[in-house]
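Changelog note: in this version the structure field was regenerated for every chain. One regenerated record is shown below for reference.
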Amino acid sequence: GKEINHKMLRRPRPLLWLTCALLFTGVCAWAAKPPLRPCNELPVDQMTCQMDANCVWGSEGNLAPCTVIEGFNCTGPRSFTRPYDCSYCWQLGSGTASCSNSQPTCKAGMDIGIAESTTLNDRLCLGSRTYDRKMMCTYVSDKSWVNTIFYSLFLDGFGGDRFYLGYIGLGFLKL
């Protein structure tokens, strides 16, 4: 047999230690980070843009000088121009804003309610990016439709379905 040199087994291996140190200290973390986006493709909330409020109303393709806000990383020039339509955010068409709540604030008897809306981050527009938008109200009852049908079928002549739904006046009229 061959003799094993125990000193060789205990000797530290520099390449192995260096590899372990790089992995555990995060030096190799660059491989896991997503690539940086070009500065002119960043969302609007990561830049400041100077739009001309004296532009021709409703005109498209106006150019606004924009600069990336400090603290946001990107590639390419940090100052550039970006196109915008000459209109206020609240005047943009449908599909250009998201609502903070899916149901607008509606009062009894109203067909139109108010919902807080925010312009999407890919659109430049004049004025505040957050505004109140009128939306159609959709009323949702906490009453069971199964119970309503049951009362309508069996207690309709007595107005049971109307009383159940909270229409007391109509319930008395049906009596």
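Spot check on this record: Residues 4-10 have pLDDT under 50 and may be disordered. Residues 14-25 form the longest helix (12 residues).
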